[in-house]
Amino acid sequence: MPVPEILPIAHVPGYRTDTIGRYAGGQFLASITYAFRQEFQRRSADNWEDHKRLYVVLHRFDFEGWHVESTIWCAGTWREQQHRRNAADSVLEILTQ
User: Fold this and answer.
1) Phi, psi angle pair for 38, to nearest 5°
2) What tens digit of pLDDT does each residue of 24-77 get?
3) In the predicted model, is pLDDT for residue 94 greater than 90?
4) Cys-Cys with 60: which of 22, 65, 67, 68 at CB 3.0–4.6 Å?
5) 79: closest CA among 47, 33, 36?
6) What does residue 54 show for φ and ψ, rounded to 5 degrees?
7) What is 27-88 written as a DSSP string?
8) Distance between CA atoms of 35 and 21, rounded to whole angstroms?
């Protein structure tokens, strides 16, 4: 079976695809994820909050659904975001809206 050129993705509120939307230049899919460095041993660390890095991912598409670009940036550590939780530009604040 050939791979389709465009894959439709449904907007489902309250689920992983609730951050799909439109903007002046087309469509987008955004998400926030986290990662630990491979060498980090989470089970034995008391300071895991300093090692858990949050990443913001933004995929942009044109109006027809063709991929334009993806941008990924580090929003800091879990501890840093906890200290800024009530700031308007805090990743954790945005997640709870």
Assistant:
1) -60, -35
2) 999 999 988 888 877 777 666 678 888 889 999 999 999 998 899 999 999 888
3) no
4) 68
5) 47
6) -95, 135
7) EEEEEEEEE--TT--GGG-S-GGGT-EEEEEEEEE-TTS-EEEEEEEEEEEHHHHHHTTTST
8) 25
